[in-house]
Amino acid sequence: MCTTEDKIIDAAIVLFSQKGYTAVTTKEIAKEAGVSEMTLFRHFENKHNLFERAFDRFVFTPKFIALFENLEWNLERDLFNICSSYQDVLKKNQKIILMHLKNDEFNPQFEKMLLKFPSEFKNLLRSYFEEMRNRGVIVENPETLAVSFLATNFGLFFTSLVMSKLTFNTDLQTCISNYVKIFTKGISLQK
Amino acid sequence: MCTTEDKIIDAAIVLFSQKGYTAVTTKEIAKEAGVSEMTLFRHFENKHNLFERAFDRFVFTPKFIALFENLEWNLERDLFNICSSYQDVLKKNQKIILMHLKNDEFNPQFEKMLLKFPSEFKNLLRSYFEEMRNRGVIVENPETLAVSFLATNFGLFFTSLVMSKLTFNTDLQTCISNYVKIFTKGISLQK
DNA sequence: TACACATGTTAGTAAGAACTAACATTATAC
DNA sequence: GTATAATGTTAGTTCTTACTAACATGTGTA
């Protein structure tokens, strides 16, 4: 966090995610990092290289997968934990996500990395719902449930991110637990 | 759709929403519109002006509000209609939404226009849920429900938009009706 | 035919951005 | 204290881009 390269990368991530690749100048990044523009080029050679290095810094945590190995098999509690962790991951990576949204014109392998996480996450979710169906807790189609859960969670995150200026009286945390409660009740079998 | 200005504006919207304001050149827009760059400047004076004109073209339909005057007061059916119409509005305006995501560095009044729609929509939703609570159909807090419903809907849209490359086996339509069904069951009172 | 008007073409200006070279300055290690 | 490495400074090159000016071409209308 203290080295020159780190300072530059941090500044780059902030600015790229705010404005997008093209709109940010190297001079700007250097200034934000509190460093001479020359130093930037000495360390990263060129702008695009800096971008790639900045990207490599952020990886979706695989720790997340461990979550699925410590399930309680209680629908509401499990979903709440999953949902919360997912929101954490998204929040931690929000800069890179924004960066991606503003720079998707280039770098296809960039795209692949970003899509790897949600698709793996979906598979984990589907397995979970499959197991819950085997246990007779739910009846719905696991795949559909997984996609729906994934999409809505992403929506919660994204709404709170993009529409932060909307003065809603409800915060994300309340929204999450409320959503999970409704979702749980909505898919639970009852006699 | 046939005038020169329209051709240019259309091209501008496509390119701006794909790449963002800064990354697109006037030459590029002119080429995409099948028109000389000079003609572009003759009509719009400068790039920023073209951007504003392009923005003005897209407005969130107020027709949407009429939907809330023809309610059936059947939870699932109403929500499904609302949800579908909302997805339509979002889809119709997806270019402008993307444009906004890539250009939010400037133009604050731009932001206001974009946020007007979701906040009005949320109020309509809250009124609906309030009335449903009065009728004894649901018990949850109307505000929270409205925000949750809004957020998740936006998430469905956005997921299908951004992550279109994810090869999920479930399409948006299925996802919506499934979500509405679950949501309805989740908030309905039952004996 | 003749005129007006929209568009194309071409050349060019001014500003800004990425990037380089050369030299000056500071800090660190021994 | 001196050598070495990292950083700062300054000036400059090249390229791209927004934008202009002047003139040419074409097209419809009276």
Element order of chain A: H for helix, E for strand = HHHHHHHHHH
Radius of gyration of chain A: 20 Å
Overall 3D shape of chain A = elongated
Q: Determine the fraction of residues in helical runs of chain A and give it as a percent range.
A: over 70%
CATH-derived topology of the largest domain in chain A: Tetracycline Repressor, domain 2
For this structure, the quaternary state is homodimer
Q: What is the number of helical segments of chain A per DSSP (H or I, 4+ residues)?
A: 10
CATH architecture identity of the largest domain in chain A? Orthogonal Bundle
Task: Describe the protein.
The structure is a homodimer of 191-residue chains. With 191 residues, chain A is mostly helical. The first copy, chain A, has helices at 4-19, 26-33, 37-44, 47-57, 63-66, 75-92, 94-103, 108-134, 142-162, 172-187. In chain A, helix 6 (75-92) packs antiparallel against helix 10 and helix 8 (108-134) packs across helix 9. The radius of gyration of chain A is 20 Å and the shape is elongated. Chain A starts with a helix and ends with a helix. The model of chain A has no long low-confidence stretch (mean pLDDT 83). The interface between A and B is large, with 52 and 52 residues. Chain A binds a DNA duplex (30 and 30 nucleotides) through helix 3.
Task: Briefly characterize the structure.
The structure is a homodimer of 191-residue chains. Chain A is mainly alpha-helical. Chain A has helices spanning 4-19, 26-33, 37-44, 47-57, 63-66, 75-92, 94-103, 108-134, 142-162, 172-187.
